[in-house]
Structures are given as structure tokens and as C-alpha cells.
Design a protein that fits this description.
Helix content is 7%, strand content 30%. By secondary structure, it is mostly beta strands. It is globular. The chain binds FE2/S2 (inorganic) cluster. FE2/S2 (inorganic) cluster binds next to loops.
Length: 96
């Protein structure tokens, strides 16, 4: 569905639920996952519906994920970092 316009030799690797995702420096988590074919980034708290990033600019909050153990992180605003741990967010997260 999504493909990159250009390739780069520089890569950043991070873990997405046990799968190693190869991204480019400067990618956001959401962009890297979409490019890797991962569409569902969270499921809703009420119905369990799968949700995908929509606005890609921090407005819709459809991209909330668990990143390095912290929930409610907006994947479309979070740059990839080598070795980061990313998981789908399932349902509501508590406020700490
Ligand atoms: S995709 Fe809309 S806030 Fe991230």
C-alpha cells in the first residue's frame, strides 16, 4: 500500500512486537510501520475496533501506541530511535 519514494543506506532498527522494523533516520514510528505494512496501531477501548493512523500530524490521536513502556504515545509525532520497543495499544491506558 505504501512505498518509499527513495532509498537510503542509513537505517534505524526498532522492535515492533517481536518483529524488527527497518526505518530511515527521521521517520516517525507511524510512517515506519506503514512503510513496513503494519496498518493497525491500536484497538479501541470500547469496541476493540482496529485503528490506523489518519492525520499523521498529531490531531486525530488514532496512532496511540506503547513506546518504550509508555502508553498513549502519538506514533505520528515520535521519531524512530535505534532499539526502541513499540507495541500496539489495546484499550485505554491508565493515567500515572
Ligand atoms: S495519526 Fe493523527 S494524531 Fe497521529
Amino acid at each position: 500500500m505504501f512505498r518509499r519514494l527513495e532509498t537510503s543506506a542509513d537505517v534505524v532498527r526498532f522492535d515492533f512486537e517481536g518483529r524488527t522494523i527497518i526505518a530511515r533516520p527521521g521517520d516517525t514510528v507511524a510512517a515506519a510501520l506503514l512503510a513496513a505494512g503494519e496498518i493497525t496501531l491500536r484497538v479501541t477501548a470500547v469496541s476493540g475496533s482496529p485503528r490506523a493512523p489518519y492525520c499523521m500530524m498529531g490531531v486525530c490521536f488514532e496512532c496511540l501506541m506503547e513506546i518504550d513502556g509508555a502508553g498513549n504515545r502519538q506514533a505520528c509525532l515520535t521519531p524512530v530511535v535505534e532499539g526502541m520497543q513499540v507495541r500496539r495499544q489495546s484499550g485505554a491506558r491508565g493515567v500515572l
